[in-house]
Structure formats: structure tokens, C-alpha cells
Amino acid sequence: MANDPLLVPCSRCFKLNRVSASRLTNAPTCGHCKSQLLVDQPITLDDATFQSYVGRSDVPVVVDFWAAWCGPCKVMAPQFEAAAKAASGRALFAKVDTDAAQGVAAQFGIRSIPTLIAFKQGRELARQSGAMSQSQILRWLSSANIR
Q1: Residue 117 bridge partners (DSSP)
Q2: Catalytic: 73?
Q3: Does 33 participate in catalysis according to the annotation?
Q4: pTM for this structure?
Q5: How many Cβ atoms sit within 10 Å of the Cβ of residue 67?
Q6: N or C: which end of the chain has fewer CB within 10 A?
Q7: Which of 10, 13, 33, 73 is catalytic?
């Protein structure tokens, strides 16, 4: 229902916020730190922040598992940022450096990078490995019913 509250994590303080589904398009802000909740750019997550951001979010979170030494990851980075802007309001976007967050990378069995995983309430909805363009990322999200 349009008024059912959704749990939305804050990209700045990582606190969960209850937001009416009908208010998602009205630029809701965090009740704790007052930052905008639905940011249109990927945020950086690590072993310490991953679960608090991805674990209980009712809004899908698309995570790019990458590494600084990975050429395809560098090529895809601006495409991922463009997809985050295009999908603003329907999904949150985050990046995890697999060298810095080895615990999270191991938890999800990341064997090749870049790998995108879409989560909702901490559950994996879809996974795709390999560099993609913005349009391919958006098509992949649509095929995973992330609208």
C-alpha cells in the first residue's frame, strides 16, 4: 500500500528511517542527521557499514563489488554512477572495494569483478558479473523487477 512505511537507510549516518512509500518521491530526509535519504550517487560501504545499510532496507540496494586495480571496474564506474542517477528513487546504489572489505566479499562469494548484486532486506535478488553500460545496468534491474 502507498502509505505502508518502508525502512530506508541513511547514506550518511546509516540509521534506518521509516518512510511512507507515498513520500519516497518527495526527497525524504533522515530523522537523525537530516541528510537526504534517496541519494542519486553510489555510496562507499565496507565491512563495518555493509550490514547496516543493506541488511534491512526495504528499498533495493544495488552493490558494485570492485577493486582499484581492476581495469573493467574503472571503465564501468562512470556507467554505474549514471545508472544511480537514472534509477534514483527506485533503488539505492553502493560500492564495495573487495580489497578493503574482504569479509563482505567472502560472505557473498565474489570470485570475479566487477560483480553487481541487487539486495532487498539483505536478501540477494539478482547477480551479474562483468562490466556493463548504464543502459545494460538499467535493463538488468528491470529484468530483476527492480522498478
Answers
A1: 63, 127
A2: yes
A3: no
A4: 0.94
A5: 16
A6: N
A7: 73
